[in-house]
Amino acid sequence: RTFALTAKRHRDFGLCDLAHCQVYRGVTANEAARDAVRKTAGLFLHTAEGAPLSAYFHASCGGHTSTPRDVFGEASVGTAVADPSCAAHTWRFSAPRAKWAAAFKVPAHGPALEVVRRDAGGRALEVRVFGKKLTGDSFLSLAGRAFGWRAVRSARFTATESRGAVSLSGSGTGHGVGFCQLGAKDLANRGANARDILQHYFPEVQLDAMGQE
Q1: How large is the average pLDDT for residues 31-42?
Q2: Rounded CA gap, 181 and 106, in Å?
């Protein structure tokens, strides 16, 4: 709800039904989700000044979330938090040097992939692909387009190069900012309610009812 309130992600409309936004599948798609909406009716996250929060969410943080400032360069409110239950959500991917170079449209000269800067949670904020400098978020997007969205799943990875191939070992799925869906599921299974879960991922903001729905 809060994400939708602040969404202006397309020129002519706010939200789409893809993973880019909220993957809406219709009112009959998931009764459990509809029940959660009813039980939290009217509630939204906001700053101390009353402004709705840019409430980003993702599939799995891989052990630690990141801030909007670090990943997207936004000045919006956000705190990175540890989420140990997601640390076991790991992945691996490997491809030849030539394919990495083709994916990023650069000559295959020098080190293939270097992480230049990371945030406190271990997410790559700046990388170099054969010398080409990219933000971690841009790298993730371009790698997804080239190799498929289930290949390089997050920017929380380490990279090694051997025998003409570049291999990544990582954890998590998605950009890692804000609300972690896998971590939230684990908290709920351990007895946390909606307010507990939201305050875990957004400790610096408030949760209150809107004036009207």
Answers
A1: 86
A2: 35
